[in-house]
Design a protein that fits this description.
Belongs to the NifU family. Keywords: Iron, Metal-binding. The chain is of the alpha+beta class. The protein has one domain: Alpha-Beta Complex (Sufe protein. Chain: A). It has five helices and three strands. It has a three-stranded antiparallel β-sheet. Strand 1 and strand 2 form a beta hairpin. The termini are far apart. The site of FE2/S2 (inorganic) cluster has 12 residues, from helix 2 and helix 5.
Length: 134
C-alpha cells in the first residue's frame, strides 16, 4: 500500500547513517542478519566492540522499505559509542516513536531491535569461543 512517511523517516532514507559492512570474521565484530516474514525485507547490522564492552563502530545494510532503512540507520546512530549493555536495552517502540512510525510499520522497527539483538548474540558467541581457546 501507499504509506505516507514522516520527514524523519525520509531524512534517514535519503541520508542513511553508517551504511556499509564490517569484517564478519573479525573476532571483535558481531553480525546480525534478520528478516521480516511478513514482507520479506532483510536487515544486516554489525557492531565492533572494544575491550571495555564499548561499541566503537556500527554499520548496517537493509534491503527493505523506507521505515526499515530509517530504523536501522537510527539504531546504528544510537548504539555507536555506547556499551553493549545499553544497546541490548533498545526497544523497537523507542525507534518507532522517534520516527513516528504508523502501526502498520511497527514491524520495521522490530527488525532493527532484532538485528541489534542478533549482532550482540553473535559477538558474545565469538567472545565465548575466544575465551575457550585461551
Ligand atoms: Fe517490512 Fe518495512 S514493510 S520491514
Amino acid at each position: 500500500g501507499v504509506a505516507k512517511y514522516h520527514e524523519k523517516v525520509i531524512d534517514h532514507y535519503e541520508n542513511p547513517r553508517n551504511v556499509g559492512s564490517l569484517d564478519k570474521n573479525d573476532p571483535k565484530v558481531g553480525t546480525g542478519i534478520v528478516g521480516a516474514p511478513a514482507c520479506g525485507d532483510v536487515m544486516k547490522l554489525q557492531i565492533k566492540v572494544d575491550d571495555n564492552g564499548k561499541i566503537i563502530d556500527a554499520k548496517f545494510k537493509t534491503f527493505g522499505c523506507g521505515s526499515a532503512i530509517a530504523s536501522s540507520s537510527l539504531a546504528t546512530e544510537w548504539i555507536n559509542g555506547k556499551t553493549v549493555e545499553y544497546a541490548s536495552k533498545i526497544k523497537n517502540d523507542q525507534i518507532a516513536k522517534e520516527l513516528c512510525l504508523p502501526p502498520v510499520k511497527l514491524h520495521c522497527s522490530m527488525l532493527a531491535q532484532d538485528a541489534i539483538q542478533a549482532a550482540l548474540k553473535d559477538y558474545q558467541k565469538k567472545q565465548a569461543k575466544t575465551a575457550e581457546a585461551k
